[in-house]
Protein: Dihydroorotate dehydrogenase
Amino acid sequence: MQVNFLGKNLISPTVLASGILGNNFDILQRVHASGCGLVTMKSIGPTPRDGHNNPTVIDLGHGMINAVGLPSPGYLHMEKEWADLNNRDFPIVASIYGASVDEFQQVADYVSDKKPDFIELNISCPNSEKHGMLFGTSPTASFDVVNAVKKVVKTTPLIAKLTPQALDIGEIAKACEDGGADAICAINTLGPGMLIDIESRTPILDFKKGGLSGPMIRPVAVRCVYDIFKATRLPIIGLGGITTGADAIEMIMAGATLAGVGSAVTYRGISVFKKITREMDQWLKDHGCTLEDIRGAAH
Structure:
């Protein structure tokens, strides 16, 4: 089931979410060979960062809670990864983050020269210039970072990844569109949440708080995509709790162009991309329609 996304022909409408399987060429190639249409790298930051101490991820059965902490070698320490990726025959999204507009611009300028097919701006991280406020909760901050990055990435399409913590995610998406974003990815993890071990009387995660992902957040993700579709004309990667083809169809009906897959890799294995695509294809055949027929149909 091929689909076109911002001029790029993809083998399927599925996308590997950032942070699931790293930046190693071999594993990213394996993901594509497993039926993934668009492969997103683990987020790249301005400086080396270890992330949080274990435990960082807890499986709740109906989803996960995690506080991995954006580990990154830093954008200046990935020459081997980029050299390997130059030999790829599949499209990639380079996900980047920063704690200020200047850091976003600096990382984006460097990364765009490595010729990823797309750059994803993880604006769900704290803005040090605004005392820890998430970029993605402010229309002004969202516009500023997208607009600044757009000036340095030349022709590389920009995808803004949004947080469900925004009071009006449609307004944030419109600000990103006005700033020059070419697409939206929604949503990042929900939260923060917390688990407490009642025997030791302490939080279970070392960082204490973490983001929620997996099937339990899918209704929130569907609502966010629905709101974004109403607010902008940009294509949307719908992400959050998609585990089956039916989940992906629901996200497409809310307005998504592509279906992002993250936690489902843990639940259904790396072949989850082919499984979801087959399930989507069967549903469409059973109902005598195409993806274009049902995109935004819930509206």
